[in-house]
Design a protein that fits this description.
Elements: H1 18-28, H2 31-34, H3 44-48, H4 51-64, E1 71-75, H5 83-87, E2 92-97, H6 100-112, E3 118-122, E4 134-140, H7 148-157, E5 159-167, H8 174-181, H9 190-200, E6 206-212, H10 221-232, H11 239-252, E7 257-265
Parallel strand pairs: 1-2, 1-4, 2-3, 4-5
Antiparallel strand pairs: 5-7, 6-7
Helix pairs in contact: 1-9, 8-11, 10-11
Length: 267
Protein backbone atom coordinates (compact mmCIF):
# COMPACT_ATOMS: atom_id res chain seq x y z
CA UNK A 1 0.00 0.00 0.00
CA UNK A 2 1.36 3.39 -0.98
CA UNK A 3 0.16 6.36 1.09
CA UNK A 4 -1.90 9.01 -0.62
CA UNK A 5 -0.34 12.44 -0.99
CA UNK A 6 0.13 15.32 -3.39
CA UNK A 7 1.16 14.29 -6.92
CA UNK A 8 1.54 10.60 -6.03
CA UNK A 9 3.20 8.29 -8.52
CA UNK A 10 2.18 4.62 -8.72
CA UNK A 11 4.46 2.45 -6.62
CA UNK A 12 4.87 -0.16 -9.36
CA UNK A 13 6.26 2.52 -11.69
CA UNK A 14 8.66 4.19 -9.26
CA UNK A 15 9.84 1.22 -7.21
CA UNK A 16 13.31 0.88 -8.75
CA UNK A 17 15.19 2.62 -5.97
CA UNK A 18 13.31 4.87 -3.54
CA UNK A 19 16.48 5.60 -1.59
CA UNK A 20 17.90 7.26 -4.71
CA UNK A 21 14.67 9.24 -5.09
CA UNK A 22 15.07 10.35 -1.46
CA UNK A 23 18.71 11.35 -2.02
CA UNK A 24 17.71 13.41 -5.04
CA UNK A 25 14.96 15.20 -3.10
CA UNK A 26 17.30 15.89 -0.18
CA UNK A 27 20.14 17.19 -2.34
CA UNK A 28 17.88 19.33 -4.55
CA UNK A 29 15.87 20.98 -1.75
CA UNK A 30 16.65 22.61 1.59
CA UNK A 31 16.16 19.29 3.39
CA UNK A 32 19.94 18.98 3.08
CA UNK A 33 20.33 21.84 5.57
CA UNK A 34 18.13 20.31 8.28
CA UNK A 35 20.73 17.71 9.22
CA UNK A 36 23.66 20.12 9.46
CA UNK A 37 25.41 20.69 12.78
CA UNK A 38 24.17 23.83 14.50
CA UNK A 39 21.05 24.26 12.35
CA UNK A 40 18.65 23.74 15.28
CA UNK A 41 20.68 25.49 17.98
CA UNK A 42 18.89 28.84 17.75
CA UNK A 43 15.45 27.35 17.15
CA UNK A 44 14.56 26.20 20.68
CA UNK A 45 11.83 28.78 21.22
CA UNK A 46 10.30 28.39 17.78
CA UNK A 47 10.06 24.63 18.32
CA UNK A 48 8.55 25.10 21.78
CA UNK A 49 5.96 27.60 20.53
CA UNK A 50 4.92 25.65 17.42
CA UNK A 51 1.18 25.20 17.91
CA UNK A 52 0.98 22.40 15.34
CA UNK A 53 3.52 20.30 17.23
CA UNK A 54 1.55 20.79 20.44
CA UNK A 55 -1.67 19.81 18.68
CA UNK A 56 -0.25 16.57 17.29
CA UNK A 57 1.38 15.33 20.51
CA UNK A 58 -1.51 13.21 21.77
CA UNK A 59 -1.96 11.55 18.36
CA UNK A 60 1.75 10.78 18.14
CA UNK A 61 1.86 9.29 21.64
CA UNK A 62 -1.08 7.05 20.78
CA UNK A 63 0.81 5.66 17.76
CA UNK A 64 4.05 5.20 19.70
CA UNK A 65 1.89 3.26 22.16
CA UNK A 66 4.48 2.78 24.90
CA UNK A 67 3.68 0.53 27.85
CA UNK A 68 4.90 0.75 31.45
CA UNK A 69 7.81 -1.71 31.06
CA UNK A 70 8.99 -0.31 27.73
CA UNK A 71 12.34 1.34 27.07
CA UNK A 72 11.91 3.85 24.24
CA UNK A 73 14.33 5.60 21.90
CA UNK A 74 13.51 9.15 20.79
CA UNK A 75 15.63 10.04 17.75
CA UNK A 76 15.96 13.80 17.34
CA UNK A 77 14.15 14.52 20.58
CA UNK A 78 14.46 18.29 20.45
CA UNK A 79 13.16 19.93 23.62
CA UNK A 80 11.49 16.70 24.74
CA UNK A 81 7.93 17.27 23.57
CA UNK A 82 7.45 13.50 23.26
CA UNK A 83 10.17 12.18 25.58
CA UNK A 84 8.83 14.01 28.64
CA UNK A 85 5.25 12.67 28.59
CA UNK A 86 6.51 9.23 27.54
CA UNK A 87 8.80 9.08 30.56
CA UNK A 88 5.75 9.35 32.79
CA UNK A 89 4.19 6.21 31.32
CA UNK A 90 7.09 3.91 30.37
CA UNK A 91 10.13 2.47 32.14
CA UNK A 92 12.81 4.61 30.51
CA UNK A 93 13.47 6.88 27.52
CA UNK A 94 16.75 7.39 25.70
CA UNK A 95 16.55 10.82 24.09
CA UNK A 96 19.18 11.75 21.50
CA UNK A 97 19.71 14.98 19.60
CA UNK A 98 22.64 16.73 17.94
CA UNK A 99 21.73 20.16 19.32
CA UNK A 100 23.05 21.00 22.77
CA UNK A 101 20.60 23.92 23.31
CA UNK A 102 17.70 21.58 22.57
CA UNK A 103 19.02 19.04 25.08
CA UNK A 104 19.62 21.77 27.67
CA UNK A 105 15.96 22.75 27.37
CA UNK A 106 14.90 19.11 27.76
CA UNK A 107 17.14 18.60 30.80
CA UNK A 108 15.83 21.74 32.50
CA UNK A 109 12.21 20.71 31.96
CA UNK A 110 12.86 17.17 33.18
CA UNK A 111 14.51 18.47 36.35
CA UNK A 112 11.73 20.97 37.06
CA UNK A 113 9.12 18.22 36.54
CA UNK A 114 10.94 15.69 38.70
CA UNK A 115 11.47 13.29 35.78
CA UNK A 116 14.60 11.18 36.24
CA UNK A 117 14.13 8.26 33.82
CA UNK A 118 15.32 10.01 30.64
CA UNK A 119 18.84 9.28 29.41
CA UNK A 120 19.83 12.42 27.51
CA UNK A 121 22.51 11.90 24.86
CA UNK A 122 24.01 14.45 22.52
CA UNK A 123 24.39 12.57 19.25
CA UNK A 124 23.06 12.35 15.75
CA UNK A 125 21.36 9.12 14.77
CA UNK A 126 24.18 8.46 12.31
CA UNK A 127 26.76 8.51 15.14
CA UNK A 128 24.68 6.85 17.85
CA UNK A 129 25.38 3.25 18.84
CA UNK A 130 22.26 1.66 20.38
CA UNK A 131 23.11 -0.33 23.49
CA UNK A 132 19.64 -1.70 24.17
CA UNK A 133 16.90 -3.59 22.45
CA UNK A 134 14.27 -0.89 22.61
CA UNK A 135 10.58 -1.63 22.72
CA UNK A 136 10.01 1.23 20.30
CA UNK A 137 12.29 3.57 18.36
CA UNK A 138 10.69 6.67 16.86
CA UNK A 139 11.63 9.83 15.00
CA UNK A 140 9.40 12.88 14.69
CA UNK A 141 10.37 15.23 11.84
CA UNK A 142 14.00 14.47 12.62
CA UNK A 143 15.59 12.28 9.95
CA UNK A 144 16.81 14.13 6.86
CA UNK A 145 20.12 12.43 6.12
CA UNK A 146 21.01 10.96 2.75
CA UNK A 147 20.92 7.19 2.31
CA UNK A 148 18.05 7.05 4.75
CA UNK A 149 17.41 3.38 3.99
CA UNK A 150 20.29 2.20 6.17
CA UNK A 151 19.20 4.47 9.02
CA UNK A 152 15.64 3.16 8.89
CA UNK A 153 17.07 -0.35 8.91
CA UNK A 154 19.09 0.53 12.03
CA UNK A 155 15.87 1.65 13.71
CA UNK A 156 14.28 -1.67 12.83
CA UNK A 157 17.31 -3.64 14.02
CA UNK A 158 17.41 -2.09 17.50
CA UNK A 159 13.71 -2.13 18.39
CA UNK A 160 10.59 -4.24 18.46
CA UNK A 161 8.56 -1.45 16.85
CA UNK A 162 9.40 1.63 14.83
CA UNK A 163 7.53 4.84 14.06
CA UNK A 164 8.55 7.72 11.79
CA UNK A 165 6.52 10.92 11.63
CA UNK A 166 7.02 13.25 8.68
CA UNK A 167 5.20 15.63 6.39
CA UNK A 168 2.65 14.32 3.92
CA UNK A 169 2.75 17.63 2.04
CA UNK A 170 5.31 18.59 -0.57
CA UNK A 171 8.33 20.38 0.83
CA UNK A 172 7.81 23.05 -1.83
CA UNK A 173 4.16 23.52 -2.86
CA UNK A 174 3.35 23.03 -6.53
CA UNK A 175 2.34 26.68 -6.94
CA UNK A 176 5.69 27.80 -5.51
CA UNK A 177 7.62 25.41 -7.75
CA UNK A 178 5.83 26.66 -10.83
CA UNK A 179 6.18 30.32 -9.84
CA UNK A 180 9.81 30.19 -8.76
CA UNK A 181 11.36 27.39 -10.83
CA UNK A 182 8.92 27.23 -13.74
CA UNK A 183 9.09 23.49 -13.28
CA UNK A 184 8.11 20.70 -10.88
CA UNK A 185 11.38 19.95 -9.10
CA UNK A 186 10.06 18.10 -6.03
CA UNK A 187 7.41 15.45 -6.65
CA UNK A 188 7.23 13.39 -3.47
CA UNK A 189 6.33 13.97 0.15
CA UNK A 190 8.72 12.84 2.85
CA UNK A 191 6.28 10.28 4.22
CA UNK A 192 5.62 8.83 0.75
CA UNK A 193 9.32 8.22 0.22
CA UNK A 194 9.88 6.86 3.75
CA UNK A 195 6.93 4.49 3.39
CA UNK A 196 8.19 3.14 0.08
CA UNK A 197 11.74 2.69 1.39
CA UNK A 198 10.33 0.72 4.33
CA UNK A 199 8.43 -1.41 1.81
CA UNK A 200 11.67 -2.07 -0.06
CA UNK A 201 13.36 -3.02 3.22
CA UNK A 202 10.66 -5.63 3.82
CA UNK A 203 9.39 -3.98 7.02
CA UNK A 204 5.75 -4.28 5.93
CA UNK A 205 4.90 -0.78 7.18
CA UNK A 206 1.50 0.58 8.10
CA UNK A 207 0.58 4.13 7.21
CA UNK A 208 -1.65 6.73 8.86
CA UNK A 209 -2.18 10.40 8.18
CA UNK A 210 -3.89 13.24 9.97
CA UNK A 211 -4.46 16.93 9.23
CA UNK A 212 -3.53 19.64 11.73
CA UNK A 213 -4.04 23.38 11.93
CA UNK A 214 -1.28 25.33 10.22
CA UNK A 215 0.68 27.67 12.52
CA UNK A 216 0.20 31.28 11.45
CA UNK A 217 3.49 33.17 11.88
CA UNK A 218 3.24 36.75 13.13
CA UNK A 219 5.64 38.24 10.63
CA UNK A 220 6.03 40.89 7.96
CA UNK A 221 6.18 40.10 4.25
CA UNK A 222 9.95 40.57 4.39
CA UNK A 223 10.25 38.10 7.27
CA UNK A 224 8.06 35.62 5.37
CA UNK A 225 10.35 35.95 2.35
CA UNK A 226 13.43 35.27 4.48
CA UNK A 227 11.82 32.22 6.10
CA UNK A 228 10.53 30.73 2.83
CA UNK A 229 13.82 31.46 1.07
CA UNK A 230 15.49 29.19 3.62
CA UNK A 231 12.87 26.49 3.05
CA UNK A 232 13.01 26.77 -0.75
CA UNK A 233 16.81 27.21 -0.81
CA UNK A 234 16.72 30.43 -2.87
CA UNK A 235 17.52 34.12 -2.39
CA UNK A 236 15.05 36.10 -0.28
CA UNK A 237 14.90 38.92 -2.84
CA UNK A 238 13.80 36.60 -5.64
CA UNK A 239 10.95 38.52 -7.38
CA UNK A 240 9.05 35.32 -8.13
CA UNK A 241 9.13 34.45 -4.43
CA UNK A 242 7.58 37.80 -3.53
CA UNK A 243 4.91 37.33 -6.19
CA UNK A 244 4.12 33.87 -4.81
CA UNK A 245 3.86 35.22 -1.25
CA UNK A 246 1.36 37.85 -2.34
CA UNK A 247 -0.85 35.36 -4.18
CA UNK A 248 -0.87 31.58 -3.73
CA UNK A 249 0.97 31.56 -0.40
CA UNK A 250 -1.80 33.51 1.34
CA UNK A 251 -4.38 31.03 0.08
CA UNK A 252 -2.31 28.04 1.19
CA UNK A 253 -2.15 29.33 4.74
CA UNK A 254 -5.83 28.47 5.10
CA UNK A 255 -5.12 24.80 4.37
CA UNK A 256 -4.42 22.15 6.97
CA UNK A 257 -0.99 20.55 7.35
CA UNK A 258 -0.95 16.84 6.54
CA UNK A 259 1.25 14.70 8.78
CA UNK A 260 1.96 11.05 8.14
CA UNK A 261 3.13 8.20 10.37
CA UNK A 262 4.86 5.06 9.11
CA UNK A 263 4.91 2.18 11.60
CA UNK A 264 6.32 -1.34 11.56
CA UNK A 265 6.80 -4.27 13.92
CA UNK A 266 9.66 -6.74 14.11
CA UNK A 267 8.63 -10.00 12.47
Amino acid sequence: MKPEGPTPLPYDIMSKDWNSVWNHEVSSTSRKNLDKEGFWDDRVESVRKNSMFAEMTEWQLSLISAEKDDICLDIGCGTGRLALPLAKTCKRVTAIDGSQPMLDALRAEAQSSGISNIDIVRSTWQAFSPDSNYAVAFASFSIFMEDIHKHLQRMADCSERGVVFASNDLRIPIAAQQAIFNDIVSKHTDIEMIHNICEELGLEPEFETKAFSRPVPDETEEQTAIRLAEVFDIDADNPDLLSYIRSDYRKEQRDKVNVGAVRWKRK
